[in-house]
Design brief:
Length: 379
């Protein structure tokens, strides 16, 4: 049987990985500044993570639903402690798309409405609100046919006010920094207005922190910079450092009842162990502090490269914007300099999403390689 071919792939097959490096069968080291779409948060094969997962596999490898799993409580407690989101409750699932689907369903149940507002150029996974793909509408056919999604310009307060004032919107869903869309972030005024208007018109405010959460932006959650309180926060990616896990943090104004949400695999022992190891490591190794420090260092270096016209994002969720498409440059970085970077919907933007353990010396390697690759760049 062949694979259903929906992703373009680079011709590299990693056979082992350690911290910010992955290695192919010839033991060639690749500096990973992409982390498989921002998934690697505490470094590949982190010793604490590996040890805890091995111990867990050797005891109860996997069990999820309908019996007690104290690891879920431990994870909720630890997440509350590290994120400082004190009052929320946690529901666990397996991916970012699933987290957002659960968030949208919950919003719909809570408000008894079905209309959703999302923003153009956002990405919320292969869900009813998969907005980045509005230009390929066939693949965004709503999973939940009951839900209608209205797409507004990101940051457009006037249009948002007009829509919300009709009091028929169950949820506004937004990334705080648009990842796949190209690293735009709206103003604090915009996010505060979303928060205020949602409260005023009885709409649920969903912050999609699937990519930006777990310390990636230099705050535990990107929304914390804007001093707002979303009703639901969706999480995944860096949460498991490669192990599939997602979840939603739910404000206590939304009440739980049996049967409201459900899952087979969500919150299983292995997934909880992976995420607990991530949170412990973020705390013990002060990775949020590291993120801020290396980010500042990197941005200062990047500013000295004249070909970089704009630096977008914050923390270790960054985009370097050029005035030409970066596809060839990215290939050069991979095949000639052995460095993984990312792309986005903006063809001129090179995305940098390394593990939060990345050090200045690794970023120096990248900067030097980038300078060399740009010297030879045919524009
Ligand atoms: N939300 C955001 C902001 C994302 O960036 C992504 C994936 O890139 C998703 C949701 C979907 O997550 P997953 O691929 O785990 O379903």
């Amino acid at each position: 049987m062949s694979l259903f071919n929906v992703y373009p792939l680079f011709n590299i097959t990693p056979v082992k990985a350690k911290d910010v490096f992955v290695y192919d069968k010839n033991n060639t080291a690749y500096l990973d500044l992409y982390g498989g779409h921002a998934v690697i948060s505490i470094g590949h094969s982190h010793p604490t993570y590996v040890q805890k997962l091995q111990e867990q596999v050797a005891t109860i490898g996997f069990y999820s639903n309908s019996i007690q799993n104290p690891l879920q409580e431990q994870l909720a407690k630890k997440l509350c402690d590290v994120s400082n989101c004190k009052y929320y409750e946690l529901f666990l699932c397996n991916s970012g798309a699933e987290a957002n689907e659960n968030a949208l369903k919950l919003a719909s149940f809570h408000t008894q409405r079905k209309k959703v507002i999302a923003f153009k150029n956002s990405f919320h996974g292969r869900t009813s609100a998969a907005v980045v793909a509005t230009d390929i509408p066939k693949i965004v056919a709503p999973i939940n046919a009951q839900q209608e999604v209205e797409f507004l310009e990101f940051g457009d307060i006037k249009a948002l006010t007009k829509s919300l004032s009709k009091e028929d919107v169950c949820a506004v869903i937004t990334e705080i920094i648009q990842g796949v869309g190209g690293l735009d972030e709206a103003t604090t005024e915009f996010y505060k207005t979303v928060d205020t208007l949602c409260k005023k018109y009885g709409t649920i405010f969903i912050a999609d922190e699937v990519q930006s959460g777990f310390g990636r932006t230099g705050n535990f959650f990107a929304f914390q910079k804007h001093d707002i309180e979303p009703d639901i926060i969706s999480i995944a990616k860096g949460m498991g450092n490669g192990f599939p896990i997602g979840g939603i943090l739910i404000h206590p104004k939304i009440k739980a009842s049996f049967g409201l949400l459900g899952t087979t695999f969500g919150g299983n022992h292995l997934a909880c162990t992976a995420s607990l190891a991530v949170l412990e490591t973020i705390q013990q190794e002060k990775l949020i502090e590291n993120t801020r420090e290396v980010s500042e260092y990197f941005i200062n270096k990047a500013k000295q490269i004249p070909e970089i016209k704009n630096i977008k994002g914050r923390g270790l969720m960054l985009g370097l914007e050029f005035d030409f498409p970066i596809a060839e440059l990215r290939k050069k970085l991979i095949y000639e300099h052995h460095i993984f970077t990312g792309s986005s919907k903006n063809p001129n933007l090179l995305r940098i999403l390394p593990s939060l353990t990345v050090k200045k010396e690794h970023l120096d390697v990248f900067i030097n390689a980038l300078i060399k690759a740009l010297e030879l760049q045919e524009v």
